[in-house]
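Example complex used in Figure S2.
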Amino acid sequence: MNCRKDMIYLMHKYLDEELTLQEEKHLRLHLQQCEDCQKYFHELTRTDTLIRSTSVMQPSSDFTQNVMANLPQEKRRWGYMRWFKAHPALTAAAIFFILMFGSIFSIWDQPGQLSVSNDQDVVIKDGKVIVPEGVTIEGDLVVKNVDLQIDGSVNGNVTLINGEHLMASAGNISGEIEQVNQVFEWMWYHMKKFSKSIIDWAN
Amino acid sequence: MDLKIKQKIKQVKKGDQSAFEDIVACYQDKVYQICFRLIGNTHEAEDLAQEAFIRAYVNIQSYDDKRKFSTWLFRIATNVTIDRIRKKKPDFYLDAEVKGTDGLTMYSQLAEEQPLPEEELESLELQSYIQQQIMSLPTKYRTVVALRFVDELSLAEISEILDIPIATVKTRVYRGREALRKKLRDV
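Predicted assembly (390 residues):
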């Protein structure tokens, strides 16, 4: 049979889905006429089907766990990262507190750096800030890490941080006087300042 | 490729080990089947599939995102298995045929817990017979047959996995199929 070799080649091509339309037509026409080739073709397709039919095996059910257990150790960093990802709210809260307390304590712990919000009209002498007699400060006055003595007058609020208001003489303050000496007061002061700035910004 | 798997691979590359679990779950059947087709033994196939996944994990940095992940993974699986076949010494397995008994395996020597329904038994016998015929092929044909019929991979993909020209793949599929046709003709 001369036809055989070409035809077998075409049959394989058919099974590998590589036939052109023309070749397919050619093969089909031939199969209709040639009984031997028909039988051969049937055997080949059956072979493919049989092999395919047995490809349904599965590994044991704990396969994935076994693989995971045998992987080399990952870097520890990832363990934390995963925890953070799983608990976003806690992570955010933790970061907030770390930053907040960190900044508060670092600012609080700065040793005695004297500062005055308005140093043009005041006199700094003997470890205290004096608003001299006859001087009127327009606007708020903030004094840090130093005592304050007001002989003149202040046209606004006075805030004293880590210092005392020395009431040696009757100074004149038109606004409120506020003293902040404790960490928690300090925190409170900052929170108020922060929320006030938000409100100002919102307005 | 599945977008989710792509995402997981990225995570694994960054160092997140737990993302690898989904990748294993997604491909374990295919990898196991390829290994089984090549080695012909369930116990060893599982061991090899596991090794293939571990190697894939260790070498994940060398995987190129632009290429198909399954191609890369199957290549590792075939390489691991072929290495094992080369090194393999004659060994003792329950599914191995007992000498001089004509088709009897050690499994048939074990007491059966409960009799299998006839139909299931027949299909099991047929499966093990087909696998025996595949095992009798030389490794290079067996490899092609395993890849061609386990995941319906295209000839082009097989050529990429095995790193051989596509014409060679065609020839091997052709010859492998012819050899199996003769063996399975009378089933």
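Chain B has two domains: 1-94, 136-187. Chain B has a mean pLDDT of 83.
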